[in-house]
Amino acid sequence: MIELFVLLAVLGALFLVGSLIGMVFKLVFGLVGGLFSLIGGLFALGIGLLMLPFLALALLPLMIPGLLLLGVIWLIVRASRQPAPAQATH
Fold first, then answer.
1. What is the mean pLDDT of the chain?
2. Residue 71 has pLDDT above 90, yes or no
3. pLDDT at position 23, please?
4. Is residue 2 pLDDT above 90, yes or no?
5. 63-79 burial string, b = 16+ CB within 10 Å, else e?
6. DSSP code of 84?
């Protein structure tokens, strides 16, 4: 009976040590993976911000008709407004 208890205690201790080692590995690899993910995300954000002017330039032919329409509407609205009355200074 004592032998069975010692065997179960040794197996339990080995299981506990293995679980602790697994927890440490999971923590370390999680932190390292999170760090690499953060660095990669910042790198991708920088590349995306560098590409933004080229994207706007590439989409300019598609946006010209809409921009012209907005400009015409703005000119019509601006021309139809009456000038604001001048404020009297005391």
1. 93
2. yes
3. 97
4. no
5. eeeeeeeeeeeeeeeee
6. P
Residue type, 58: A
The DSSP-derived string for 19-65 is: HHHHHHHHHHHHHHHHHHHHHHHHHHHHHHHHHHHHHHHHHHHHHHH
Distance CA 30, CA 24 (A): 10
Distances (CA, A) of 55 to 44, 48, 59, 61, 74: 15, 10, 6, 11, 26
Radius of gyration of the chain (CA): 35
The tens digit of pLDDT for each residue in 51-70 reads 999 999 999 999 999 999 99
Q: Sign (positive/negative) of CA torsion 74, 77, 82, 85? A: negative
* H helix or E strand, kind and range, residue 89: none
- Tokens 């506990």 identify what position? 16
Q: What is the pTM of this model?
A: 0.52
